[in-house]
Structure formats: C-alpha cells, structure tokens
Recover the amino acids of this structure.
C-alpha cells in the first residue's frame, strides 16, 4: 500500500474518531451542565476508552467500526444539536421572571426524549460494533484486557 493511501486512511480514521468523540463529549457536556445535572447519567461503557482500545484491534475490525461510526455520526450530531438547544430552552425557562411550570415540565420531557434517543443510538452503535468482533476481541475492547 503506498504512502498516500496510508495517510488518507489515517486521516479518515482520525476524522471519524473526532466526529464521534466530539458528539459524545458534547452530549456529556449538555447532560452535565446547569439543571441537566439533576437528571443523572445513564451510564454504560466509557466510549473514549473504547476508542483507545479499538487501536489494538486488527485493521479489518477497525474499518468495520469506523464504518458503523460514520453511518451513525449524522444522526448523533443532529441529536447533540437538539440536546444543546433544548438545554438552552430549559435554562431560559428557569431564569424567566414568571416560572411556567407546565412549559418547564414539557421542556424537561423533551430533553429526556432526546437523551433517550442518544442513548439508543449509542447502544445501536455498540451492538453493531460487538457484532463484528470475535468473543476474544469483545473482551479486549469492552473490558480493556490485552490478548
């Protein structure tokens, strides 16, 4: 494989990882700021650690993982944007001179719905990734044990 193809592949991997991690970080930021802190963390595997462990997998599996991430990135970006906008709406409602509890409850319900969609999308991605790996690779990726 020539040098330019390797560089293009590395650039593509870096771009996909940055898009995914960026959306994940924005999601966590939106979820852990202001009044959103009261809603708790849905938990789950730490995706940034998964990204680091992914580098230890064979090229074929890394490529399949990148494809799955690229496939879901536009949806995640849209949800991150919606979450950020919803969080801002909640903060504005909380700071309004007259507290409208009905609107505030609806805004919180909307935020929960967005967070649920984001969690579903992350789970869909993880299931898709797990389906491309051998049992040993899943252990390596999700528990971080070297094989």
């Amino acid at each position: 494989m020539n040098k330019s193809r390797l560089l293009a592949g590395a650039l593509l991997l870096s771009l996909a990882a940055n898009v995914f991690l960026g959306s994940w970080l924005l999601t966590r930021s939106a979820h852990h700021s202001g009044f959103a802190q009261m809603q708790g963390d849905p938990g789950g595997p730490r995706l940034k650690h998964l990204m680091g462990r992914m580098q230890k997998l064979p090229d074929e599996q890394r490529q399949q993982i990148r494809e799955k991430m690229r496939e879901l990135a536009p949806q995640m970006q849209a949800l991150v944007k919606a979450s950020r906008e919803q969080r801002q709406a909640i903060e504005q409602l909380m700071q309004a001179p007259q507290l409208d509890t009905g609107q505030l409850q609806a805004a919180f319900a909307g935020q929960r719905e967005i967070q649920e969609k984001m969690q579903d999308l992350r789970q869909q991605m993880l299931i898709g990734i797990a389906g491309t790996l051998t049992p040993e690779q899943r252990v390596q990726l999700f528990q971080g044990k070297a094989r």
User: Anything to note?
Assistant: The chain has five helices and no strands.
